[in-house]
């Protein structure tokens, strides 16, 4: 059984590893090209707009409607679990709030750090599309999801554990979204795995 002091020690250990990872990225990977590129990549995930638009576009096509509905449900679950429940409940400070010497390349986000919302929405999209279209749409979206997740670390606005949990929760929400859509549609859509 983990005592309160043990839990605090474990959390401080995670925080220490998180900060060491961010310092390593800054020391070994920071360069002018990535300083230019990573804010652009990160902006693709702002407010989940890219993924919301993708869901709407898919819903508007008969061939991909099932996928669009599953993606829309997954994103809604992400909003509820990530933004409305976990962020306020955990209230984790962001890296630049923990270490005020960090110089940001983007405007400082105003909400809590845990979990990474950009990563959450990106991995909901990637997981749905890999499940439904692993030969076509899935792989490029998965690559983009990893790039967006990495951008949040490079820009030092999230801890690695925020990003990891965003990936994990994104996968779970996508699975639930797919299961709910299957149930609503009475079975999987016809466009599977194309």
Distinctive features:
globular; disordered N terminus; 194 residues
How does this model look, in words?
With 194 residues, the chain is mostly helical. The protein has one domain: Vanadium-containing Chloroperoxidase, domain 2 (Orthogonal Bundle). It is built from 8 helices and no strands.
Structure, briefly:
The chain is built from 8 helices and no strands. The protein has 194 residues and is mainly α.
Order of helices and strands: HHHHHHHH
Any idea of the CATH class?
Mainly Alpha
Total count of domains: 1
For the record, the CATH architecture stands as: Orthogonal Bundle
- General shape: globular
Low-confidence stretches: 1-8
- Average pLDDT works out at 90
Determine the CATH topology: Vanadium-containing Chloroperoxidase, domain 2
Write the layout of secondary structure elements.
Blueprint: H1 4-28, H2 32-43, H3 49-59, H4 65-90, H5 95-98, H6 117-132, H7 138-154, H8 160-185
């Amino acid at each position: 059984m983990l005592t309160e002091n043990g839990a605090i020690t474990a959390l401080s250990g995670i925080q220490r590893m998180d900060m060491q990872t961010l310092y390593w990225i800054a020391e070994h990977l920071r360069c002018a090209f990535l300083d230019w590129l990573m804010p652009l990549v990160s902006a693709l995930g702002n407010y989940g707009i890219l993924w919301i638009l993708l869901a709407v576009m898919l819903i508007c096509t008969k061939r991909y409607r099932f996928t669009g509905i599953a993606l829309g449900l997954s994103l809604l679950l992400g909003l509820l679990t990530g933004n409305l429940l976990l962020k306020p409940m955990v209230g984790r400070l962001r890296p630049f709030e923990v270490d005020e010497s960090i110089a940001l390349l983007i405007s400082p986000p105003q909400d809590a750090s845990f979990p990474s919302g950009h990563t959450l929405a990106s991995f909901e999209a990637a997981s749905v599309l890999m499940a439904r279209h692993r030969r076509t749409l899935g792989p490029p979206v998965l690559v983009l999801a990893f790039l967006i997740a990495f951008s949040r670390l490079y820009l030092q606005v999230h801890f690695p554990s925020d990003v990891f949990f965003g990936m994990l929760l994104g996968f779970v929400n996508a699975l639930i979204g797919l299961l709910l859509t299957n149930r609503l549609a009475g079975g999987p859509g016809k466009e599977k795995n194309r």
